Amino acid sequence: MRIVITEFISLDGVVQAPGGQGEDNDGGFAHGGWSHPFFDPEFVGGSFTEALEKADALLFGRRTWQNMAAAWPERAGDPFADRMNTVPKYVVSATLGDDELTWNNTTRIDGAEAVARIRELRDGEGGEAGEAGDLVVMGSPTLVRTLLSEGLVDELRLMIMPVLLGGGKSIFPADGGLHTLELASTAISPAGVHVCTYRPAAKG
To answer: What whole-number distance in Å separates Cα of residue 195 and Cα of residue 170?
Structure first.
């Protein structure tokens, strides 16, 4: 199962609270909803739809899962929402109780066991990565930083939006590790969003 990261991201590398005010105010972040002026159904929406259609499961950090779980069930009836609600989901958390997993088809992964469990899902019963469908991660910057550091990301799909946010949460590790990527595809929306897909560069 491939691990595919898909993110709204600013030119200065911020992924925090793209969806709306109050989504994530950590650090006094004041620009919640910054992605809205650049969203369009064809390029940006199409990229998310394509990723979701290829997903065998979704993987979230706790905060992103809670935001999604509060939003998507009430949108039932829309094809994208129905897919979000029915696909199997995993949430990494050391604090959520099983009685709080109210979003359909959600399984909790204990934070202390996250790397080992995600590695099992990736390599899993099906064998090598890529033999099954995708395990898609949306948002979840803390989790994504860990996955990148551990070399567990098979595809990085960034929707790079023409805006500077001046600070906020990033998905990129600051551990001094070198991670070389190859650009697999790119497209530019009328609003200037670069939809770029990267994959780890072949070794050697």
So the answer is: 17
